[in-house]
Amino acid sequence: MTDPRPPGRPVLAIDIGGTKLAAALVDDAGRVVAYDRVPTPNAPGRDAEDLWRALDGLLDKVVADAGGPEPAGVGVGCGGPMTWPEGAVSPLNIPAWRGFPLRERLRERHPGLPVRVHNDAICVAVGEHWRGAGRERANVLGMVVSTGVGGGLILGGRLVDGASGNAGHIGHVIVDPDGPPCGCGGRGCLEAIARGPGLVAWAREQGWRPGEPGGTGVELAADARDGEPVAVAAMRRAGRALGIAIASATHLCDLEVVAIGGGVSQAGPPLFDPLREAFDAHARMDFARRLEIVPAALGQPAGLIGAAALIFAPGRYWNAH
Amino acid sequence: MTDPRPPGRPVLAIDIGGTKLAAALVDDAGRVVAYDRVPTPNAPGRDAEDLWRALDGLLDKVVADAGGPEPAGVGVGCGGPMTWPEGAVSPLNIPAWRGFPLRERLRERHPGLPVRVHNDAICVAVGEHWRGAGRERANVLGMVVSTGVGGGLILGGRLVDGASGNAGHIGHVIVDPDGPPCGCGGRGCLEAIARGPGLVAWAREQGWRPGEPGGTGVELAADARDGEPVAVAAMRRAGRALGIAIASATHLCDLEVVAIGGGVSQAGPPLFDPLREAFDAHARMDFARRLEIVPAALGQPAGLIGAAALIFAPGRYWNAH
């Protein structure tokens, strides 16, 4: 599909999450030139159209506030699973949308414009490749370590979609075959060990007492940075699992850069030091040892910037109809 | 590089191994139209030029015996490691070649013809994709379970090379982080558990008594097919490790087909049944469960056929200079 607008117009970028809906206008340098968000109307009893109305209102507001030209297209990152490239979405943490035809509805809302929907973690990885920690590198894995562990894979300079748009599920690389059960139904996946809520549950069992009720992965990461011993041990657990999964990934895909973002990654050295130690123990071949493992560079807007790249750079990031 | 010969001419395909050097003329349908081989002159004291002379004579003979036209190009599969795409090779099991400029020497031997050298396991995977078990599928992992465990990855219809031509090292996906040491220097890699010599050593410890001195993976596979209990247990061990590694690979790459060849794979159900059981336990998401895991289709000539495909189908299998 050829973009019908001249270059220079911004893209309307959307990030659909269980907590908030975010929208932005992003220019072709990857800059966020307008931004707003609303809480996801996710309470029991809210239906699919309640959610759509909230999104619709948000999009009107972002475009109107910017006062600028019509966007060049609409790029969306959304929690999975979804049918791809059709973009009928069933985000795990948004029960009201089951098979919701998000791409089709956005096409009706923006007739004549390209509309592209991909997994939210893939959009983060695309953002980091396009304008972040992986730019100008051909073989990059972008990761998000947060409520879940997701990612996206760029090989030979192009996003890998796989058979059904599901490539990049680094969170389900197996790091301990006899390890804890995973939300996917399997066992010992990276995500089962390193996801924020899993780390928080483990840390509480070991005696960690969070300030907030329940505690979050971000809080645990902050405590680890401050040297709290149980939080440090939790991050060591996560770091080891990440190092093993990344060694497997680079042996299979011969990567140049792995960029790691998400709330848990904010722990810094208490996470990255044991990660590198585990990686170094398992990745011994020269080609694997050249891998650079770095924090993600774009922070919170990475997903919106990547969603915009689906429109701005389709040859690299969108190879579907 | 554009092929200077009209279509229809065969490719001179070469397979360099520690036991034998094989050469063939392969036509563009993937048929082997001429074939010969010689033992690799690998005894202590043989030097790099002894090996080259043996290869040179073999190539003369295959082309002369066929009595046909000059080949369209030269494709080579060779044991790693190597510099890629330069093709200076240092096969682990051929000590006399360390940084041997194989591609350069073949270019001098065949001036004006395209000469392309890639890893031998990658050539097997390419062969299976081009004319074997993975044909007409876009996302395929080809595997060889033999003295080592190697492979090649085709995604979006194209061979994945990675940063340095080393993508496809499925044998070093980690299946048990505290498992046995691996020849790569790591621990718990698939290859450390499932390679033929490792299985043979394990089976002998458990009381397996091979007919041949020492025993081989092929013999162990045959005994497993015949129901010999220790051989069956060895294949269960290998199958479980394979199932875990394949689950990790398809979660990361969203594959359609995994094609498994090599001597150990000849065990059949005693290997494939526990493989599928482990895969099914770990691959629970819909997209992963659609994966087809099949025996390789081409048998012994797969590597030669894949080496020919490096010349016949460069857009798909060769993206270097």
Q: What topology does this entry show?
A:
The structure is a homodimer of 321-residue chains.
Chain A lengths: L10 E6 L3 E7 L5 E8 L8 H19 L7 E5 L3 E2 L4 E2 L10 E2 H8 L5 E5 H12 L8 E6 L3 E7 L2 E2 L30 H5 L1 H10 L11 H9 L3 H25 L3 E5 L7 H14 L3 H4 L2 E4 L6 H11 L1 H4 L4
Parallel strand pairs in A: 1-4, 4-8, 9-12, 12-13
Antiparallel strand pairs in A: 1-2, 2-3, 5-6, 6-7, 9-10, 10-11
Helix pairs in contact in A: 3-10, 5-7, 6-7, 7-8
Enzyme class (chains A, B): transferase
Family (chains A, B): Belongs to the ROK (NagC/XylR) family.
Keywords (chains A, B): Transferase
Summarize the structure in words.
The structure is a homodimer of 321-residue chains. Chain A has 321 residues and is α/β, with parallel strands linked by helices. The model of chain A has no long low-confidence stretch (mean pLDDT 95). Chain A has two domains: 11-120 and 301-317, 2-Layer Sandwich (Nucleotidyltransferase, domain 5); 133-295, ATPase, nucleotide binding domain (Nucleotidyltransferase, domain 5, 2-Layer Sandwich). The first copy, chain A, has helices at 48-66, 102-109, 120-131, 190-194, 196-205, 217-225, 229-253, 269-282, 286-289, 302-312, 314-317, and strands at 11-16, 20-26, 32-39, 74-78, 82-83, 88-89, 100-101, 115-119, 140-145, 149-155, 158-159, 257-261, 292-295. At the A-B interface, helix 7, helix 8 and helix 9 of A face helix 7, helix 8 and helix 9 of B.
